[in-house]
Design a protein that fits this description.
57% helix; alpha+beta; five-stranded mixed sheet; globular; 5 strands
Amino acid sequence: ALTEIREAERRRIARDLHDVVLQDLSAALQGLQAAQVEAMLGGEDIGLSDEVAALRDAVAGLRNAIYDLRLEGRQPFVRAVEALVELNRQLAPDCETTLAVEEGFPEDLPEKIGVELLRVIREALVNARRHSRASRIEVSLRREAGRVAARIADDGLGFDSDLRGEGIGISGMRERARSLSGELHVETAAGRGTTVTVEVPLELS
């Protein structure tokens, strides 16, 4: 009964955030952008670039928070990945985001594995959306020999890992993979895109 109450409360909060707070923030963002365009057409610079960027980040952050609340409410893993890919399409409409689920991949995963794997996929998508300037992102899921794997590949800028090192986002994904007795691999090079692959066992040891 407590679990049902908590899930109902999460759904209510997510719905209120989406239907009220997010809509208000989005309307404010559109108003600022319209004012900025109008001023530019009139030959003025009203200096709203920082405010527009900050509000845009707030809208994106709120969308992610809403997704997290819905994620905690649990739904079949593949359906949750579909929702995450759709969210990325909404946040990055100029980037084509696709999902491929190989035959034999389970519709759902054990709760801890599913939640942590979803968070790795989300972090990889956030990094690609914010930093790669990619025109295409491909998400694929596969199963082999008692393990499941998720691959997130983009055709963006990539980076020189020897010069840049491993950022907080990649470190966090690696830690989540290790918490599931899994592995995270990152393939990238400047100008050649980035591919993140996470593999985890279907059963926790």
